[in-house]
Amino acid sequence: xxxxxxxxxxxxxxxxxxxxxxxxxxxxxxxxxxxxxxxxxxxxxxxxxxxxxxxxxxxxxxxxxxxxxxxxxxxxxxxxxxxxxxxxxxxxxxxxxxxxxxxxxxxxxxxxxxxxxxxxxxxxxxxxxxxxxxxxxxxxxxxxxxxxxxxxxxxxxxxxxxxxxxxxxxxxxxxxxxxxxxxxxxxxxxxxxxxxxxxxxxxxxxxxxxxxxxxxxxxxxxxxxxxxxxxxxxxxxxxxxxxxxxxxxxxxxxxxxxxxxxxxxxxxxxxxxxxxxxxxxxxxxxxxxxxxxxxxxxxxxxxxxxxxxxxxxxxxxxxxxxxxxxxxxxxxxxxxxxxxxxxxxxxxxxxxxxxxxxxxxxxxxxxxxxxxxxxxxxxxxxx
Length: 383
Hints:
By secondary structure, the protein is α+β, with helices and mostly antiparallel strands. It has two domains: 7-149, Creatine Amidinohydrolase, Chain A, domain 1, CATH 3.40.350.10; 152-382, Alpha-Beta Complex (Creatine Amidinohydrolase), CATH 3.90.230. The chain has ten helices and 13 strands. The strands form two sheets. Strands 7, 8, 9, 10, 11, 12 and 13 form a seven-stranded antiparallel β-sheet that branches. Helix 7 runs antiparallel to helix 8. The longest helix is centred in the middle third of the chain and has 21 residues, at 155-175. It starts with 6 loop residues before the first helix and ends in an 11-residue tail after the last strand.
């Protein structure tokens, strides 16, 4: 099966990783984040819901410890040559298998970095792992080492991000004719996801968000569908996905004549996102982006209606979330660099008046001004 990137791309990623490991004096890394394994090797699976880890030594050699169900998955989708299977059984403790494997790899007494902050690491696994390694080696929390390397995208990655953005636009195009009085949320959702899949894209790392009426004020997916009324509001947050790379968008669409409050909130969203476009460039930080958002919202008396974050980095991600670690929130000193794919969202939820307004899409940063990846304008959408 051809991988999504050529050998030179994976080799360059390994070189960046081992260089960072050398800086931090790490003899090995235990990768538990599926996106880290995917980025480094192409390995593509949802098997991280069980115990598995990719051991990467300072010299670039790799060994995957996983279950039998993922043996062929790894061989088919990755460039990993050495794959070791731990056996499913009653009261199995695969961290014992891991310790034995690390011993065979001459890592007794080594300094090993571990990805703890990931959906592939449960609390139970962390406790078992620490118990096995306490007297075996020196460990450190290296949760963000690969995550930080993934922040800037290569030209090959950018091509996938751009295709993902086009699929996100296609999803909105498919939804708009169905958004009207009497429209069915189920049909809208099916059309959006269908546009991504039929366009050669993938499932997203989390569900598309859809909610109308009072549920337009929710920021998460929930079960249940509704028919749109003559005067209504519909909040959508979705992503185009290609080779697991995400490009997200967000809109609150008004059915019928927008209320005065809808127009006020839209103006705040629009002004804030345009101001952020002036900040979303090298020399600024993720915290500066949030501060711009907060200042504009707060000046308009919307402090209690806004959120405490206004976006995040995007990339190749796996369930249950397409959000990267690096977010736009107060105090985040992460510098903005060229070739980052960043989702900027404005979310205002006025619970007192049951009025929602959101606006957002994905940008690619450059050496100067950011480039919006959506072909759709930031206009207020009315149906």
